[in-house]
Amino acid sequence: MIDKELNEFLPSAGLIQKLSEFGIEKTFEEGDVILRENAYSNSIPIVKNGAIRVLRTDEDGREILLYYIQSGESCVMSFFGALHQETSKLKAIAEEKTNILFVPIEKVTSLIKDYPEWLNYIFKLYHKRFEELLEVINEVAFKKMDERILSFIQKRAELTQNKTITITHEALANELGTARVVVSRLLKQMEDEGLVNLGRNKIILK
Fold first, then answer.
1. Residue 85: CB partners within 8 Å, gap ≥ 6?
2. What's the distance, CA 200 to chain centroid?
C-alpha cells in the first residue's frame, strides 16, 4: 500500500512503495533527541509529519541552530554519514510530535540504481541545506543579534504556522549561540518597538 503522507512529496509511486516496505516508522515527542553528535547512524530518516531542528554544539556545550527538517524531507548529512560509516557531526531534536520513517542505508544505495528520482530527491535536499547553511553563516557574520533573533522568531512562526512561539529566553540564547541576558535585553527592546509581545516563556510575533 502506497504511503499517502510520502506521496505528497515524492513523485514516484514505486519509490514510495519501496521506502514504505524497507523503512521502520518511529514517533518522537517534542524535545526528544533523535540523533546525538558523535553517534553512528545506519539508516536515513524521512520525516512523514512534524519537524526536526538540527543543531551544532561546540566544546563548551553551546549550540547553534542550523536548519529545520520538515515533512517530506530527509537529512542529507545522515545520508552521507551513514554511507561512509562516519559519526554524526550534528544533533537532531524533534521540534514537535514527529513521525519518521527510517530507511536502512543498504536499501538506500540500491534504490539509487532502480529509481533515479531518489538521487534527484537527495540532491535537491542537499542544495536546500547548503543554501540554509550559507544563510546561517551570513547571519552570524553580517547581521546584528536583534536581526538574528527576529529572523529566528519569523522562521519558527512560519514552521509552526503560529505567531505565538513557546520558548524560554535561555533556550533562544542557546540556539543562537549567545547569552540569555543579551536575548532578554533585545527582546524587551523589540517589544518597545512594537515588533513582538512578550509573555511567560512565550514570544508573540506582531
1. 40
2. 25
pLDDT, position 176: 85
Tell me the domain boundaries of the chain. Answer: 4-141, 143-205
Q: What is the CATH number of domain 4-141?
A: 2.60.120.10
Average pLDDT, the chain: 85
Thinking of the domain 143-205, which architecture would CATH place it in? Orthogonal Bundle (1.10)
Residue 180 pLDDT exceeds 60? yes
Amino acid occupying residue 120: N
pLDDT of the residue at 140 = 82
Which tens digit of pLDDT belongs to each residue from 6-16?
Answer: 666 676 778 88
- Paired with 93 in beta bridges are 33, 53
Residue 1 has pLDDT above 50, yes or no: no
At residue 127, the 3 state secondary structure works out as helix
| Complete DSSP assignment for 130-194 | HHHHHHHHHHHHHS-HHHHHHHHHHHHHHHHT-SEEE--HHHHHHHHTS-HHHHHHHHHHHHHTT
Q: How many CB atoms lie within 10 A of CB 44?
A: 27
